[in-house]
Design goal:
Number of helices: 5
Strand order of the largest sheet: 1-2-3-4-5-6-7-10-11
Structural class: alpha+beta
Largest sheet: 9 strands, mixed, barrel
Strand content: 25-35%
Distance between the termini: 5 Å
Radius of gyration: 20 Å
Order of helices and strands: EHHEHHHEEEEEEEEEE
């Protein structure tokens, strides 16, 4: 299943993205300049070569899994989460009062789950190689680093360390890639937390792979579609895809 966000600034997003796409396709001019003996152009930054524009404010649209996303599911209700026996055992020990007393109320707002939480997301470029996603839910901030990113030697966080890359049509996910391109984000190094608010666990060994796609409907509506794949050898017996 994929989940959607609708842009609250659809017109601005559409115009800006068209401009960036034109820049990304303009690589032929640099090659021609090189053949004429002119100085080669420096490599484009991830921001300049973006095939799609994900910046702006986005509001989540809940079209499925209401009972898991809009309310906290009952204890032990792990439907559709492929927990193994250890994951079920740990999940059945969920105690929200204990989490609150330990100051761990944000365990369900980590990278494996945050994009499923209803709310608003603000995506901006922090610099030419880093995208920032600020979530109203849990007041969390994610940083998507392009290029050779070296994780800092600091304690684990709910959002972990995310490495981003652009996947353009024909060069990334094959037939599944949209015509413009996608943002791929791989996240690791997270604190252990919950895939759902009722204690369905993920461990510190979990790795999250996400794909961010932008589409525009014929009526002008602009959508941000996020696909999330969670791998966790500790608590899952297969990939958890949402």
């Amino acid at each position: 299943m994929k989940y959607k966000f609708v842009s609250v600034t659809a017109l601005i997003v559409a115009l800006t993205s068209a401009n960036l796409w034109a820049q990304a396709r303009g690589g032929g001019a640099a090659g021609a300049a090189g053949q004429r003996g002119e100085a080669p152009q420096p490599p484009q930054t991830p921001r300049a070569m973006a095939p799609i524009d994900l910046t702006g404010y986005w509001v989540s649209i809940v079209t499925e899994d209401w009972r898991f996303r809009m309310v906290t599911p009952p204890k032990g209700d792990f439907a559709s989460v492929p927990l193994n026996q250890e994951g079920i055992r740990v999940g059945n020990q969920w105690d929200p009062a204990k989490d609150e007393a330990a100051g761990e109320q944000c365990k369900s707002y980590g990278a494996p789950a945050i994009m499923r939480v209803p709310g608003r997301v603000h995506i901006t470029w922090e610099n030419d190689t880093t995208l920032t996603a600020e979530m109203d839910a849990g007041q969390q901030t994610r940083l998507f680093h392009f290029g050779e990113f070296q994780p800092p030697a600091t304690p684990r966080t709910w959002q972990g360390n995310s490495v981003a890359s652009w996947e353009t049509a024909g060069g990334g996910r094959g037939r599944g890639a949209p015509s413009g391109g996608s943002l791929k984000v791989v996240t690791s190094g997270m604190r252990a937390g919950y895939l759902r608010k009722n204690g369905a666990p993920y461990s510190e060994k979990a790795v999250v792979t996400e794909y961010y796609d932008r589409t525009t409907e014929p009526n002008g509506d602009t959508w941000l579609i996020v696909t999330t794949v969670v791998n966790d050898p500790t608590y899952l017996n297969q990939e958890f895809i949402t």
